[in-house]
């Protein structure tokens, strides 16, 4: 089975990435010094050894200046000069080391197919050199030189291939790290977006509930202004208290929205959010509007995770808000919390006229928000008219997310 590191398509893609990278100035300076030093030493030795033919040695050394930027052209150019040396009958020179340097370079920096071709050219060069420079030797010596030169050529090429593999491995690690960083940034942006959506939903719940209570109190105070001034004052006081509380909570939410880059996305960080323990206060506020609310808790109460407690609180708040809007005067409401073995059941029911109102007639997002909240906690919400009149909202919220569930 082909691994990712040895997959030819992935190898070619990664080689292309490495080839496309700019050559650092330090590497260019090193190549310039290398080629210059070899010309000063090996090139001059070739001229001293072969005279005019030694000039060919510079043709195998000078191109090394561009060995990293154009590895294929350098290798085949140097090979062409070496072939010309063979054709004119010039002896082997110290400058022939440039062939090995060019072979190493193409195996490290060149395209994979050209590296294979370069190995074949090197093998052909071994045969040509043996046939020319050791033609008068004993066959044993010819075989020995052929094996030695072949091993040298193959060893240089294999060392270059190993360097290529190491560079590809490092490049893959860098690419993977860059991809992980991009994924992390994308997840962070998504988390910020989700957090802003959650805060916007909180604002909706706070404003809708507060305004519903204020409207009911204002209507009641208007009717009671002449007959019962004390009731009217009490209604006005409730309106003021509700408005101030809602405004304070909304300002907190808006303050979080303004902190675009400083949103605390740690789910374990405690937040000053209401929970099940805050329901009696919420229900008392609703009772002050004149709505009859029966609150019952069954089962053995337990400590709930902050998110689950907030979800239960908001579902009750939204259910009571809908009752204030649609149930009509004289309606009775029941809020029941059932702490079961596996889940918490929250039920908000009323016996008002809201059962005849189609849920889709309300353009708000209350029911949608309740279902979204419940789904985040792995639960469900059902809402609709009751048999015999009235309306009910039932939420089933498991204490723990199921294995493999949504996190």
Automatic annotation (TrEMBL):
EC code: 2.7.13.3
Keyword line: ATP-binding, Coiled coil, Kinase, Membrane, Nucleotide-binding, Phosphoprotein, Transferase, Transmembrane, Transmembrane helix, Two-component regulatory system
Transmembrane domains' residue ranges: 32-61, 73-89, 95-112, 141-159
Name of a matching Pfam family: HisKA_3
Segments forming domain DUF7134: 29-167
Annotated coiled-coil segments of the chain: 163-190
GO molecular function terms attached to this record: ATP binding; phosphorelay sensor kinase activity; protein dimerization activity
Taxonomic source organism: Kribbella steppae
Taxonomic lineage: Bacteria, Bacillati, Actinomycetota, Actinomycetes, Propionibacteriales
Occurrences of domain Histidine kinase/HSP90-like ATPase (ranges): 312-399
Record-given protein name: histidine kinase
């Amino acid at each position: 089975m082909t691994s990712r590191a040895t997959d030819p398509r992935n190898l070619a893609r990664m080689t292309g990435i490495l080839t496309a990278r700019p050559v650092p100035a330090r590497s260019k300076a090193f190549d310039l010094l290398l080629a210059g030093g070899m010309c000063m030493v090996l090139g001059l030795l070739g001229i001293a050894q072969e005279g005019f033919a030694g000039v060919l040695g510079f043709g195998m050394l000078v191109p090394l200046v561009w060995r990293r930027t154009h590895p294929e052209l350098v290798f085949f150019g140097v090979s062409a000069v070496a072939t010309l040396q063979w054709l004119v009958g010039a002896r082997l020179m110290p400058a022939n080391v440039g062939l090995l340097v060019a072979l190493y370079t193409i195996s490290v920096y060149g395209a994979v197919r050209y590296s294979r071709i370069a190995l074949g050219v090197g093998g052909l060069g071994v045969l040509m050199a043996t046939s020319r420079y050791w033609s008068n030797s004993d066959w044993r010596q010819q075989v020995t030189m052929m094996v030695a030169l072949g091993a040298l050529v193959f060893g240089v090429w294999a060392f270059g291939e190993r360097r290529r593999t190491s560079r590809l491995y490092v490049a893959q690690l860098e690419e993977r790290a860059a991809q992980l960083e991009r994924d992390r940034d994308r997840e962070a942006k998504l988390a910020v977006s989700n957090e802003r959506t959650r805060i916007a939903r909180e604002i909706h719940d706070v404003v809708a509930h507060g305004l519903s209570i204020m409207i009911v109190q204002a209507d009641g105070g208007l009717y009671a202004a002449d007959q019962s001034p004390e009731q009217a004052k009490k209604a006005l006081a409730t309106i003021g208290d509700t408005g101030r509380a809602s405004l304070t909570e909304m300002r907190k939410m808006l303050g979080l929205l303004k902190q675009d880059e400083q949103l605390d996305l740690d789910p374990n960080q405690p937040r000053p959010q209401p929970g099940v323990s805050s329901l009696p206060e919420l229900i008392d506020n609703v009772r002050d509007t004149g709505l009859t609310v029966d609150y019952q808790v069954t089962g053995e109460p337990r400590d709930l995770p902050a998110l689950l407690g907030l979800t239960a609180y908001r579902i009750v708040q939204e259910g009571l808000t809908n009752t204030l809007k649609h149930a009509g005067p004289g309606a009775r409401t029941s809020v029941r919390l059932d702490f079961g073995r596996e889940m918490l059941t929250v039920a908000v029911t009323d016996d008002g006229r809201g059962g005849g109102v189609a849920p889709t007639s309300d353009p708000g997002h209350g029911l949608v928000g309740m279902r979204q909240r419940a789904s985040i906690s792995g639960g469900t919400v059902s809402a609709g008219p009751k048999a015999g009149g009235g309306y009910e909202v039932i939420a089933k919220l498991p204490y723990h997310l199921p294995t493999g569930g949504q996190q």
